[in-house]
Structures are given as structure tokens and as C-alpha cells.
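Wed. Picked up where I left off yesterday with Dihydrolipoyl dehydrogenase. The coffee machine is broken again, so keeping this brief.
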Amino acid sequence: MSYDLVVIGTGPGGYVAAIRAAQLGLKTAVVEKRKTHGGTCLNVGCIPSKALLHASEMFEEANHTFPALGISVGKPKLDLKQMMVHKQETVDANVNGVAFLLKKNKIDAFHGTASIPAAGKVEVKAEDGSTQVLETKNIVIATGSESAPLPGVTIDEKIVVTSTGALELGSVPKELLVVGAGVIGLEIGSVWSRLGAKVTVVEFLDRILPGTDDEIAKQFQRILQKQGFEFHLGSKVTKVETGKKGTVVTVEPSAGGEAKTLSADIVLVAIGRRPNTDGLGLEGAGVATERGRVTIDDHFRTNVPGIYAIGDVVRGPMLAHKAEDEGVAVAEIIAGKAGHVNYDAIPGIIYTAPEVATIGKTEEELKAAGIAYKIGKFPFTANGRARAIRHTDGFVKVLADAATDRVLGCHIIGPHAGDLIAEVTVLMEFGGSSEDLARTCHAHPTLSEAVKEAAMAVEKRQIHM
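Structure written out below (C-alpha cells, as returned):
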């Protein structure tokens, strides 16, 4: 078996790289350890979590919003089994779609565990123990990431779970304790909170959502607390003891101090993710790594000629769409074209209710870099469409260079923030200014008008506030 390119891993980065390479005329193969394609994202991460986030939000709407809209359906009854069916149908449709795309683009797919004995060779060990070696001119490592473990805590995916187990619970826990106030913990916590769980979050730092604009994070915490979340910030989990009646979690101040205990039916460990490189044989192949991540240059090349890496195994945010863009870029580079990713214009979304969306620099980053900037903000309470749909929490915040007016960042908390951030992403990709955005006609009444008004507010000329 001889190829121009073999991609290890068929998550968003891997399968996109393979498809783009095939489009460019490269003879391409992929190796996937799961029985289905799509990686963590499609199988046990992004896609199933969004299916449950949507379903639980509809349950919440039926419970609390429908009566105010003049819709009387009585108290909704949760059918968790059917909700899980919806989740699985969503997953199946997506992973089957990827399999179809690989076949359509004439990409050979091998299922098994991959390793790299040397440059130009990928060994595939199938589930039955048989092995075969694929000869290839180029290799792309796109093996993604896995949940980071909490030292001293054993994961059983039943009582003490990662995101994988938390999306498979057979009943709604009375009390869910989430370790980590990052994106994954808050999203999954939101699912079970809406369905009836009491959610407690323990975070090592003194704030939620590390790295997010501080004003956004503070507003978001207040909203989640109104929804019933309880936060223990500046705290660390030192012990989790499981018994027949659930778990007892020992929590101490991060800076040291007296310990206390919290009880829970389920404990979700969501303290981050780590690169998935075990078993690849990187050390034997001479591929350099740093703190678990594969070291690459600006063209995704490792130190070994012919071996590249993208996605969660390399530097940068662990986001599916970042991996996809890198997949396109690395395929184009291998094919002799000029692949490129603009890391200053990669949005990040938290799919809670309200959603949180960010792109570019935060205020804290601009201050640290000594960059003079202007701020434009606009609340959803002043947006007609937000009032009509009864979702007025949050605001849009635009940060622009004080001298050039170039937009350096945008941060949104509010309804459909994940969709609204897209126009700012395009604007930033083209180096646009707040005035460019402010002078662009936006349809009325739409939520996008809040983005326009925030851009107008940079020069203090918003109309509706």
C-alpha cells in the first residue's frame, strides 16, 4: 500500500485534511482507531453535547417560556430515553456523513491503531491483532485529545465521569458536582441543570472561563447563578470517595486552608484536555514534542521530514474548527500550494443559554500588550428581536484599535451569539474597522443589529441606547 498522504485520525482536522488532499489529486488514506469516523467531536463530544443542549433548552422553554407566549401545554414530562435517542440519531447521521464523504473522494479508510515506525511508514494494528504497513510520502498526525485526569481521582464513567460518561447518564442526577469551570463543564452542567439537577462547580482559579474576557465571564457567572448554579471558586478537589449513596468530595482553598466536603450523585471531571499521542511511537520515529504536544513550524511540519501534525495535538486552541482550517492548510501545503491559518480570527463558542462567543483579543490582553483601544457595547435589552423572543440577557462588546479603528476583538453573551460572531470573524479576516461594521446595513428586526450598534458605540454614536 503506497500513498501520497496518510492521515492518522478522522476527527474534524483529519477527515478535512484527507478530503482536501484528495481534491488536490493526492492518493490519500486515513487510519481511525474507532469503528466510526469523526473523532471525539462527532462521536462523544461536540455533536452529542449540542444535541442534548438543544433538547434540554427546549425542555426549559416549554417549562418556563411557553406560558408567557400564550402557549399552554401543561407541565412537560421528561423522556430522557427518547432524548438520548435524539442524541444518538444526530451522532449517527454525522459519522455516516463523514464515511460517505471519504468514500466519495476515493479515500482508503483503515480501522485500527496507528503507529509511526519511521518516516514514510504507518503501521496499522487491527482489532483482531493483525498488522499492515502503509507506505506514504507524507504523514499527518491528527489524533486529537482526551480528557485530562484529576490526580488521585479514579474515573469509572458511571459515578465519576468525564464528558463522555456525562453524556450517557441513564437518569438525571439529583446533585451534579463539576470539577472545572471551563467550557465543557459549564455546557454539560447546563444540560443536567435544565433537566432538574442541582449543579455545583468547583474551580481552581478565582474566576470561571479562564482566558475569556473578564467582563463577559463575570456577567455569565451571574446568569448561571440565577439559573441555579453554585460556584466554589479558588478551590481544588483533593479527594473523591464513592459509595452506595453517591460521592463525598473533599474541597480545599487553592491557596491552602481548611478543607470541607461536598456531596453529589455524579462527579464530572472537566479540568481540560490533553493531546492524544500515546502509542504513536513518536519518540522512536524521532518526532519532537513539548509538554505532550507535537512541535511544529509555521507550515505544520515536525522536525522529521514528511511528518506533519494539526489540531489538538499541536499548539493553539483545542477547537474543532481550528483543526479543520489546519487540515485544509496542511493538505494545500503538501500539494505545493500556500496553505495558511489566521490564528487571530478563530472564534470560540460556549453553547449554553445564553451563548457566549468570543474572537480576537480580550481587554486584559490588550492592556497587557500596551495597546490603546476603544470599546463599543450594546445590550440585548435594547434589541427589538431579543425582546420579541424573550431572551434579553447579555450584550455585544467590540474592541477596536484607538488609532486605526481596526477591530481587534469581539465578545458576545446573548441569544445566538455563536452565529452572530461570524460576521465579526469575516470583518477581522479582512482587517476591517468598527466603522466598516457600523456602516453596513443590517436587517431589522434581527439580533445582528446589536452587533452593528456595538460597533457604532465605539465612536459613541449608537442609536438605540
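Quick read: Residues 312 and 319 are 7 Å apart (CA to CA).
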